[in-house]
Amino acid sequence: MEILLTSAKSETIRRISTGLAQFHAVTLTDRYPVSTDLRFVQSNLNHDAETNNLVRNQKVIIHSLEENSRTSDSEMLDIAMRCTYNLLFASVEEKVRKFICISSLTLMDAYDEEYIVDELWKPIPQTEPSVLRYHLAELVCREFSLEGNIDVIVLRFGEIVNQHHIPPRTRSALYIDDAINALNMAINTNNDKLGGKRLFHIQSKIPNAHYHTLSAENTLGYNPIKRI
Hints:
Layout: E1 2-5, H1 11-20, E2 25-30, E3 39-42, H2 49-55, E4 60-64, H3 73-93, E5 98-104, H4 129-147, E6 151-157, E7 159-161, E8 173-175, H5 176-188, H6 191-194, E9 199-202, H7 214-219
Parallel strand pairs: 1-2, 1-4, 2-3, 4-5, 5-6, 6-9, 7-8
Helix pairs in contact: 1-5, 3-4
Protein backbone atom coordinates (compact mmCIF):
# COMPACT_ATOMS: atom_id res chain seq x y z
CA MET A 1 0.00 0.00 0.00
CA GLU A 2 1.28 3.50 -0.86
CA ILE A 3 1.98 5.45 2.33
CA LEU A 4 3.41 8.93 2.92
CA LEU A 5 5.09 9.85 6.23
CA THR A 6 5.91 13.41 7.23
CA SER A 7 8.72 14.67 9.53
CA ALA A 8 11.40 12.53 7.91
CA LYS A 9 14.06 14.50 9.80
CA SER A 10 12.92 12.74 12.98
CA GLU A 11 14.96 9.68 13.95
CA THR A 12 11.79 8.09 15.35
CA ILE A 13 9.94 8.53 12.05
CA ARG A 14 12.86 7.07 10.09
CA ARG A 15 12.80 4.01 12.36
CA ILE A 16 9.05 3.71 11.96
CA SER A 17 9.29 4.10 8.18
CA THR A 18 11.85 1.29 7.99
CA GLY A 19 9.46 -0.99 9.86
CA LEU A 20 6.46 -0.07 7.72
CA ALA A 21 8.49 -0.48 4.53
CA GLN A 22 8.48 -4.23 5.15
CA PHE A 23 4.75 -4.23 4.33
CA HIS A 24 4.09 -1.05 2.33
CA ALA A 25 5.49 1.27 -0.35
CA VAL A 26 6.71 4.12 1.84
CA THR A 27 7.55 7.69 0.85
CA LEU A 28 9.07 10.17 3.31
CA THR A 29 8.75 13.93 3.24
CA ASP A 30 10.16 16.89 5.15
CA ARG A 31 10.87 20.56 4.58
CA TYR A 32 14.60 19.80 4.80
CA PRO A 33 16.67 17.24 2.81
CA VAL A 34 17.02 13.82 4.41
CA SER A 35 19.37 10.95 3.66
CA THR A 36 17.36 7.72 3.50
CA ASP A 37 17.18 4.46 1.59
CA LEU A 38 13.45 5.01 1.07
CA ARG A 39 11.84 7.36 -1.43
CA PHE A 40 12.03 10.97 -0.25
CA VAL A 41 10.24 14.07 -1.56
CA GLN A 42 11.05 17.47 -0.07
CA SER A 43 8.02 19.67 0.65
CA ASN A 44 7.05 22.66 2.78
CA LEU A 45 3.41 21.49 2.96
CA ASN A 46 2.10 24.78 1.65
CA HIS A 47 -1.42 25.33 0.32
CA ASP A 48 -0.44 24.81 -3.32
CA ALA A 49 -0.08 22.32 -6.16
CA GLU A 50 3.15 20.93 -4.68
CA THR A 51 1.28 19.47 -1.72
CA ASN A 52 -1.39 18.03 -4.00
CA ASN A 53 1.33 16.38 -6.08
CA LEU A 54 2.90 15.03 -2.91
CA VAL A 55 -0.21 13.20 -1.72
CA ARG A 56 -1.52 12.18 -5.14
CA ASN A 57 -1.84 8.38 -5.52
CA GLN A 58 -1.10 7.82 -1.84
CA LYS A 59 -3.54 5.56 0.00
CA VAL A 60 -2.61 6.66 3.54
CA ILE A 61 -0.96 9.77 4.97
CA ILE A 62 0.81 9.45 8.33
CA HIS A 63 1.41 12.92 9.72
CA SER A 64 3.90 13.31 12.55
CA LEU A 65 4.75 16.49 14.44
CA GLU A 66 8.17 15.17 15.48
CA GLU A 67 10.95 17.62 14.71
CA ASN A 68 14.64 17.96 15.43
CA SER A 69 15.96 19.81 18.48
CA ARG A 70 16.61 23.00 16.50
CA THR A 71 12.99 23.50 15.50
CA SER A 72 11.72 26.84 16.80
CA ASP A 73 8.49 27.30 18.74
CA SER A 74 6.88 29.11 15.81
CA GLU A 75 7.82 26.29 13.44
CA MET A 76 6.30 23.72 15.80
CA LEU A 77 3.00 25.57 15.88
CA ASP A 78 3.09 26.22 12.13
CA ILE A 79 3.46 22.49 11.42
CA ALA A 80 0.69 21.67 13.90
CA MET A 81 -1.84 24.08 12.42
CA ARG A 82 -1.10 25.37 8.91
CA CYS A 83 0.77 22.33 7.62
CA THR A 84 -1.72 19.87 9.09
CA TYR A 85 -4.58 21.80 7.49
CA ASN A 86 -2.83 22.00 4.13
CA LEU A 87 -1.98 18.31 4.15
CA LEU A 88 -5.55 17.32 5.01
CA PHE A 89 -7.04 19.72 2.47
CA ALA A 90 -4.84 18.32 -0.32
CA SER A 91 -5.58 14.75 0.81
CA VAL A 92 -9.33 15.37 0.50
CA GLU A 93 -8.89 16.91 -2.94
CA GLU A 94 -6.77 13.98 -4.12
CA LYS A 95 -9.18 11.45 -2.59
CA VAL A 96 -6.66 9.90 -0.19
CA ARG A 97 -8.42 7.11 1.72
CA LYS A 98 -7.01 7.62 5.23
CA PHE A 99 -5.14 10.22 7.30
CA ILE A 100 -3.36 9.14 10.51
CA CYS A 101 -2.07 11.82 12.86
CA ILE A 102 0.55 10.88 15.44
CA SER A 103 -0.26 12.87 18.55
CA SER A 104 1.12 12.48 22.07
CA LEU A 105 -0.02 11.27 25.49
CA THR A 106 1.76 14.26 27.01
CA LEU A 107 -1.59 16.01 26.47
CA MET A 108 -2.91 13.95 29.37
CA ASP A 109 0.05 14.16 31.73
CA ALA A 110 -1.54 16.90 33.85
CA TYR A 111 -3.84 14.31 35.40
CA ASP A 112 -2.76 12.84 38.72
CA GLU A 113 -0.64 9.68 38.49
CA GLU A 114 -3.21 7.70 40.49
CA TYR A 115 -5.77 7.95 37.67
CA ILE A 116 -6.01 5.49 34.80
CA VAL A 117 -6.76 7.79 31.88
CA ASP A 118 -8.55 6.70 28.70
CA GLU A 119 -9.71 8.44 25.51
CA LEU A 120 -12.91 9.77 27.13
CA TRP A 121 -10.89 12.09 29.37
CA LYS A 122 -10.42 15.59 28.05
CA PRO A 123 -6.86 16.64 27.18
CA ILE A 124 -5.22 19.23 29.41
CA PRO A 125 -2.76 20.92 27.04
CA GLN A 126 0.08 22.87 28.55
CA THR A 127 1.26 26.23 27.22
CA GLU A 128 4.63 24.90 26.08
CA PRO A 129 4.59 24.70 22.25
CA SER A 130 6.15 21.23 22.42
CA VAL A 131 2.90 19.98 24.03
CA LEU A 132 0.36 22.52 22.79
CA ARG A 133 1.14 21.61 19.15
CA TYR A 134 -0.45 18.19 19.57
CA HIS A 135 -3.71 19.65 20.85
CA LEU A 136 -3.86 22.10 17.94
CA ALA A 137 -3.21 19.37 15.38
CA GLU A 138 -5.92 17.20 16.94
CA LEU A 139 -8.43 20.06 16.62
CA VAL A 140 -7.65 20.41 12.90
CA CYS A 141 -8.03 16.66 12.44
CA ARG A 142 -11.35 16.68 14.29
CA GLU A 143 -12.85 19.27 11.97
CA PHE A 144 -11.90 17.31 8.84
CA SER A 145 -13.17 14.11 10.43
CA LEU A 146 -16.55 15.73 11.12
CA GLU A 147 -16.87 16.70 7.45
CA GLY A 148 -16.60 13.00 6.57
CA ASN A 149 -14.60 13.39 3.35
CA ILE A 150 -11.62 11.39 4.62
CA ASP A 151 -11.08 8.77 7.32
CA VAL A 152 -9.07 10.42 10.10
CA ILE A 153 -7.43 8.52 12.96
CA VAL A 154 -5.44 10.12 15.80
CA LEU A 155 -2.95 7.93 17.66
CA ARG A 156 -1.66 9.43 20.89
CA PHE A 157 1.78 7.86 21.27
CA GLY A 158 3.56 7.38 24.56
CA GLU A 159 7.21 8.26 25.04
CA ILE A 160 9.38 6.25 22.64
CA VAL A 161 11.89 4.36 24.79
CA ASN A 162 14.76 1.93 24.39
CA GLN A 163 13.72 -1.68 24.80
CA HIS A 164 16.38 -2.23 27.46
CA HIS A 165 15.89 0.99 29.42
CA ILE A 166 12.71 2.73 30.53
CA PRO A 167 13.33 6.18 32.07
CA PRO A 168 12.22 6.05 35.73
CA ARG A 169 9.87 9.04 35.44
CA THR A 170 8.07 8.05 32.23
CA ARG A 171 4.32 7.51 32.48
CA SER A 172 3.70 6.23 28.96
CA ALA A 173 6.62 4.15 27.62
CA LEU A 174 6.25 2.99 24.02
CA TYR A 175 8.64 0.63 22.28
CA ILE A 176 9.27 1.33 18.60
CA ASP A 177 7.96 -2.04 17.44
CA ASP A 178 4.70 -1.43 19.32
CA ALA A 179 4.44 1.97 17.62
CA ILE A 180 4.91 0.30 14.23
CA ASN A 181 2.33 -2.33 15.15
CA ALA A 182 -0.22 0.33 16.11
CA LEU A 183 0.29 2.22 12.85
CA ASN A 184 0.06 -0.94 10.79
CA MET A 185 -3.20 -1.87 12.51
CA ALA A 186 -4.61 1.63 11.94
CA ILE A 187 -3.61 1.48 8.27
CA ASN A 188 -5.41 -1.83 7.74
CA THR A 189 -8.54 -1.19 9.83
CA ASN A 190 -11.64 -0.57 7.73
CA ASN A 191 -13.73 2.49 8.46
CA ASP A 192 -16.77 0.34 9.29
CA LYS A 193 -14.89 -1.39 12.10
CA LEU A 194 -14.01 1.90 13.77
CA GLY A 195 -17.63 2.44 14.76
CA GLY A 196 -17.17 6.18 15.09
CA LYS A 197 -13.96 5.92 17.14
CA ARG A 198 -11.17 8.13 15.83
CA LEU A 199 -8.83 8.60 18.81
CA PHE A 200 -6.66 5.94 20.45
CA HIS A 201 -4.06 5.85 23.23
CA ILE A 202 -0.95 3.86 22.35
CA GLN A 203 1.63 2.71 24.89
CA SER A 204 3.47 -0.53 25.65
CA LYS A 205 2.56 -3.00 28.37
CA ILE A 206 4.66 -1.92 31.32
CA PRO A 207 4.09 -2.14 35.09
CA ASN A 208 1.74 0.58 36.41
CA ALA A 209 0.82 1.76 32.91
CA HIS A 210 -0.89 5.14 33.19
CA TYR A 211 -3.01 4.92 30.03
CA HIS A 212 -5.52 2.33 28.88
CA THR A 213 -4.97 0.87 25.40
CA LEU A 214 -8.08 -1.31 25.45
CA SER A 215 -9.85 0.76 22.82
CA ALA A 216 -6.92 0.36 20.40
CA GLU A 217 -6.68 -3.35 21.17
CA ASN A 218 -10.41 -4.01 20.69
CA THR A 219 -10.95 -1.73 17.68
CA LEU A 220 -7.65 -1.71 15.78
CA GLY A 221 -6.30 -5.06 16.90
CA TYR A 222 -3.29 -3.38 18.52
CA ASN A 223 -1.30 -6.05 20.32
CA PRO A 224 1.50 -4.62 22.50
CA ILE A 225 4.07 -7.20 23.57
CA LYS A 226 4.60 -7.64 27.30
CA ARG A 227 8.34 -7.67 27.95
CA ILE A 228 8.57 -7.01 31.70
